[in-house]
């Protein structure tokens, strides 16, 4: 039996965990839910870095096909069963006598009588998507009984079984600690990239107020090194791209444990053996969200970021950050460990660098396109590039007041000015003869409901909307509104309202879309006079756009036995659909990945008779209605071979 809360025990030991839990991992209580007793492999594990969340369990491979038997991991009853377009698709939650719950997702079919119960409830409520909570014990299974067939439903990217174990408080547990012999792994994790960044206004990495990315080099003994010594000063932090590897697969998995030491002293440890279901959105504060949005690479922060509520850490006095306060050499060791205690170690050196000497100040001509403003770590960063060897000064403006400032440092013909936004928040800055706007509007504090109102737009924040202090920027341009940038993470929804420059005539078909690299993602919104209000959990650029094109329907079969076809909408997306046969509602299953729909009868023995009406409505309110008579399938003719003469 393994207990959470183990202390460090050398290179191959498990990380300690900040949770004050006494959770145990009884070996043999659960059986493996797919092909038990045989060698299996995984496509994902607990703690993998996924879009907007940590992965909550195991993705068990199913030989790239659907229809494998899924077995109850232990005795229990169906606590919840659901059918979803996205997410887990067809999913079963089994509650066990030990108080824990196992979850089985992306299923193809439920076993009977559970399947019949779900179908009957879908017909009663006339809906495909459904969440059901049967009374305790109504559907019980013994350990090893078949509860379903594996599939590819919901948001899965390929056939597999998603499998979770949760404790009585709905925390996600690592199933691999329960001793499943079906999974073997002797392959250590791999370092991919390391980023070092300044974390306050006085921090520097290689003389710059920018993150610097390094590529670790693997040595013959299996350890890793950085090819160069890192130069730094002040408070800095480490972000890391690393993943576990498992024997016999090419998949990448999340890390279970990270430990960092500087000069032999432990400064940071991270362990994701267990984490709360309610805190998965906090993930966006624990990765470098801005880089993930720009490049898709997911760097995990190896320090505790401001605004964190995710209690998975053991750190030094400054939350796992490194303080380089001298010009000496410092050895840093980073150890990463997987669920099977395979480990890898990266060693590198940081040399403290002297602070920049004062720079001379001159007045020069600046081209506006070479002035950039950005907000990083509570700091306004202004960069001004020019072609002369002279260095400009900056004049900041805020509510009519002026503040002059010298550059903080200079590199590659670029003068860099840093301003602590917690003490001063300028609305514009002048360098030489050029003035640019910062579009800084307000300072929004976490855990406080607040709002900001401009002339034609406003934002309302709940007390749960943001992780940390947000320096709100906003700019309206014609029928578009930009709030901060898409690299700024939100914890919860905010409410936005704005009045476009040109109010559309066809408002009932016009909604808000979030613009991302040439694509538009539907958000919705409600009009009140000439103002549209909407909610979002992502920041960036929002545009008003009309969708007047109705959805498409293509039937491939409408016989007395079954109805099949494809539905879709290219702009706002399918909102809902309905099929009637002679006025009676018919369950149409929906694979949203393919846009494929197919019928499922309440009574499989009864043929469809009469007229089919299929109506599909998109999220802008456009509808397409198809009506046709059901018909018998054509009888296939037997092919006859011609005799040779």
TrEMBL record:
Keywords: Signal. It comes from the Bacteria. Residues 54-111 form the M23ase beta-sheet core domain. Residues 1-20 form the signal peptide. InterPro entries: Cell_wall_metabolism_enzyme, Dup_hybrid_motif, M23ase_b-sheet_dom. One of its GO terms (molecular function) is metalloendopeptidase activity. Gene3D superfamilies: Glucose Permease (Domain IIA). The keyword Phosphoprotein does not apply. SUPFAM superfamilies: Duplicated hybrid motif. This is Peptidase family M23. It comes from Dyadobacter psychrophilus.
